[in-house]
Amino acid sequence: MLLRFRGLNLSQPLPLFLRHPKTLNPTLRCLSSPSSSQSQAPLPSSEPAEWTDDIVYLDESGDVICSGRGLRPAEPGRDAHVLDGGLLRPIPRSAAASKLVELARRWRWGPDLDAHLDRLPFPADPSLLSVALAALPASDPQPALSLFRWARRQSWFAPSDSTYALLLERLFAAADFDAIQSLFDDILKAATFDDAEPSSTSFSSSLNLVVQYLCQASKLEISFSCFKKLRDAGFREFNTQTYNSLITLFLCKGLPYKAFEIYESMESSGCSLDASTYDLMVPALAKSGRLDAALRLFQEMKAKEGSSRPGLPIYAALVDSMGKAGRLDAAVGLYQELQSVGYRPSVTMYVSIIESLVKAGKLDAGLKLWNEMKGAGFRPNFGLYTMMVESHARSGRLEMAASIFADMERSGFLPTPSTYACLIEMHTAAGQVDPAMRLYNSMTNAGLRPGLSTFTSLLSVLANKKLLDLAAKVLLEMKAVGFAVDVNASDVLMIYIKGGSTELALRWLRFMGSAGIRTNNFIIRQLFESCMKAGLYDSAQPLLETYVGSAAKVDLILYTSILARLVRSQNEKNERAIMDIMSSTKHRAHEFMCGLFTGPEQRKKPVLSFVREFFQEIDYELEESAARYFVNVLLNYLVLMGQMNRARCVWKVAYENKLFPKAIVFDQHIAWSLDVRNLSVGAALVSVVHTLHRFRKRMLYYGVVPRRIKLVTGPTLKMVVAQMLQSVESPFEVSKVVLRAPGDSVLEWFKKPIVQQFLLNEIPSKPDVLMHKLNVLFPSSAPEVRSLSPPKSLAMSR
């Protein structure tokens, strides 16, 4: 029988096992132990039958080395000895382990491997399995896993924590996480085989390794599931490294609150915290806003014996989080502490604390650290420059903002449009036109497009400074870059109108027309009213025509305001211009005015009916206040024109329509009063005459005489009404805001002829007053007026 050892190292002669030591099997030689050189034992008496075939051992060239009877088991499967010819020799454990390694590497897995392992010439045991597993190559976990699965089915198998740890290491190196999970289930079953709870002493190392390896591989769901299974099963031997692995994984996945749960579980289990735990948890707690917990853990870390000083990342996280949370005193204290323990602040820390101070409005402290940062050789970044410039600008420190802005440009940073906009807006708010325009020109020269707010602030300050030509230039540039300029142009126009610069407003409106920019009817109306106030009637006329031509409705208030200008006008030329403007309104009030001054033949109805018809067409729900304003101005105009009868008709109809509902008060026999405080001068005079006429009727014809009569005028109209009544010797006494008289005195005053003429017709003229005085001096010459004497029955009853 010829044997060739295939698969061996052929660089040496072929082996002759235990006969020629120089030609030993290289695999067995490298795994042999000192026990292999023990003395030869004699053949026992119960020697089994000898083999008849010879075994010839050949070298590489095919030459015969030797021949003889080969090795055979003394008692196959039960004894770890072999017969070498006639000698009984023990099998070395290294040779047995090498046999396991050889079979596992050759067959790898499957029934062939199991069959060869079942026919081993020696019994295996757990220690032999451990040696074989350790000898298998770490790069290929399949042979080791197959050998382990075969051993697990044997009766001599006993689970070992070191064996599981070795297999887990091989599987993790090969990234076979499904096998790791399967092995974890096996470990868990082995741990709960005898007891209801896992053994915390036998497999703690391997169970911790499973969680750690899965965490290192970023298997979030699987690792946390294994951790939860162990915790639910009652496993309490998690080590610090396992907790740290889970915390690291959750933080990397952006789940800080799950990391905090693991940390709380770690604290409740009594597991000690190491430096890695502090390095993980303090920044995580700080960044998540749990500042008190972070500070507590930070102080615990410093107070722990044998612990090193906190690292710079911990200080940086605490300073950053404290600053962002507004706890500036704590942030500055930690900043000073890290300097005192020998750390040099990083540029990131400088940026963080300066931003916190600046955002909190502590510009002086921020500027101090800014200078310290530059003195330390750090260069501020673009964002910090921008914040410093904008913060100082918004706080009104324009000089410092301009200085930092210039330093920013010298450092090679191109300011953003927002930085330019902030500086321009702050300069314009301060009314500084020249710096604002320089910044605007620098911005446009740099190729940046100003925003809408920048253009708006520039136009506002230019309009307020009355720099119309410069404002027109900026507006055209705004239009050229694509912004809608109608609203901004109208805003500039309103600034001129509100500022009383009517001439500039008219110039700006002409510029808007030439540039094709339209404005709204509201601003046209405002400009028209400004022109009316300034007496620019020639400019007001085309504005009103534009207003009416754009389908805008001239309301009663606008027409009344024009009428009020006519009342105050003292120039015939201006009066004609105002009359033309009133005609251009095309308002129905103008038709009423024209009809009021014509005769009854042309009106074809009495004045009172004509007035009632006009006031019936007014919508009092919408125009009540406008109608009241119109009555006041119209009565001024009618009194000024001497049209007392027409004025009394207007007042009568206005009172009938309850435009002045609380003007006249009849308090039975106690007091009658007339309140004219809210009326114009003409309306007050007309209302006094008309109301006194009503009082006269009640007193003379109906015999009702009150105790007193009051005319409530207020301080403004007091003298006007008093002078009118004084011309007819009225009994009213003048006080601060009221004209009052007893009812009996007023009754006697009503009986005088001039009072009858005064109340029935109109305000007496100077000749009428002179004739009244003559009649008083010479009563025999006074004509009798029967209508002034009360009827007999009334007089007797009185």
Question: How would you describe this protein?
Answer:
With 798 residues, the protein is mainly alpha-helical. It is built from 40 helices and eleven strands. The strands form three sheets. The chain has a five-stranded mixed β-sheet with strand order 7-8-9-11-10. The chain has a three-stranded mixed β-sheet with strand order 1-2-3, with no helix packed on it. α10 runs antiparallel to α11. It is elongated and about 175 Å long. It starts with a strand and ends with a helix.
- Number of separate strands: 11
Main pleated sheet: 5 strands, mixed
Q: Biggest sheet: strands side by side, in what order?
A: 7-8-9-11-10
C-alpha termini separation:
170 Å
Envelope shape: elongated
Which strand-content bin applies to the residues?
5-15%
Mean residue pLDDT: 79
Low-pLDDT stretches:
1-52, 193-201, 771-798
Task: Count the DSSP helices.
Answer: 40
Approximately how much helix is present in the residues? 55-70%
CA radius of gyration: 57 Å
Structural class: mainly alpha
